[in-house]
């Protein structure tokens, strides 16, 4: 994806996520890797009304190319990109049901429905650290293999080969969190052999 298309794709993704209540006000951030750089949402801006020129371009070592101030969380995006050659988009949101589970210190169960297994797999919980801190970057880097993760007292992260895949995973993650809060933790998930079959289909 070229830079022009990536800038527009980030704005479209933010508008979609904002419309679904997954992005709220200036919280969260969305990025796309293109060539040898990363395009990411700016710091302190409402994600529901961004335009392509608002998107900030940074190098893989975090230097701003051109104008703008990148999200304070840009370093954990870079940490994932440096470890995952197949990841080209990352979404970080504060969806209410995901965040509720993260505040409780619980983990999301992805074995309640087939879609949870197929789209999410195991969803780890990243321990709380101050946003933008070295400690948070280090903790996020540890879960780079996961398609989705919760962040304790903070929110959620998803990644994908495309921005569409990363957004779909965030939407599915919030659905699974909502479902889990409705049914509780004492329900049976899918049988282990079925989970195994679904995992082989990923």
Describe this structure in words.
The chain is of the alpha+beta class. It is 40% helix and 15% strand. It is built from 7 helices and 7 strands. The chain has helices spanning 3-19, 74-83, 96-104, 114-119, 134-142, 163-183, 192-200; strands at 29-34, 37-40, 56-59, 89-93, 125-126, 148-151, 155-160. The protein has a 7-stranded mixed β-sheet, with helices on both faces. A hairpin with a 3-residue loop joins β6 (148-151) and β7. α1 (3-19) packs parallel to α6 and α3 (96-104) crosses α6. The radius of gyration is 16 Å and the shape is globular. The model has no long low-confidence stretch (mean pLDDT 94).
**Which blocks of ≥5 consecutive residues have pLDDT under 50?**
none
Alpha carbon gap, first and last residue: 24 Å
Q: What percent strand?
A: 15-25%
Class from helix and strand fractions: alpha+beta
Q: Which strand order spans the largest sheet, edge to edge or round the barrel?
A: 3-2-1-4-7-6-5
Helix fraction bin? 40-55%
Oligomer: single chain
Please give the count of helices: 7
Question: Outline, from the CA principal axes?
Answer: globular
Q: Quick check: average pLDDT?
A: 94
Whole-angstrom Rg? 16 Å
What about the largest sheet?
Answer: 7 strands, mixed
Summarize the structure.
The protein has 202 residues and is α+β, with helices and mostly antiparallel strands. The protein is built from seven helices and seven strands; from the N terminus they run αβββαβααβαββαα.
């Amino acid at each position: 994806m070229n830079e022009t298309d990536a800038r527009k794709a980030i704005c479209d993704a933010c508008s979609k996520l904002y419309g679904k209540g997954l992005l709220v006000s200036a919280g969260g951030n969305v990025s796309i890797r293109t060539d040898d750089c990363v395009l990411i949402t700016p710091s302190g801006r409402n994600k529901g009304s961004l335009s392509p020129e608002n998107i900030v371009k940074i190098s893989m070592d975090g230097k701003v190319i051109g104008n703008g101030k990148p999200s304070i969380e840009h370093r954990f995006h870079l940490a994932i990109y440096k470890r995952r050659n197949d990841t080209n988009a990352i979404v970080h949101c504060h969806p209410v049901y995901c965040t509720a589970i993260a505040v409780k210190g619980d983990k999301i169960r992805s074995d309640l429905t087939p879609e949870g297994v197929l789209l999410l797999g195991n969803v780890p919980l990243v321990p709380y650290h101050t946003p933008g801190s070295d400690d948070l970057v280090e903790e996020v880097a540890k879960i780079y293999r996961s398609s989705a993760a919760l962040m304790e007292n903070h929110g959620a992260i998803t990644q994908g080969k495309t921005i569409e895949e990363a957004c779909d995973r965030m939407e599915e993650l919030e659905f699974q969190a909502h479902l889990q809060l409705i049914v509780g933790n004492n329900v049976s998930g899918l049988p282990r052999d079925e989970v195994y079959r679904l995992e082989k289909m990923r």
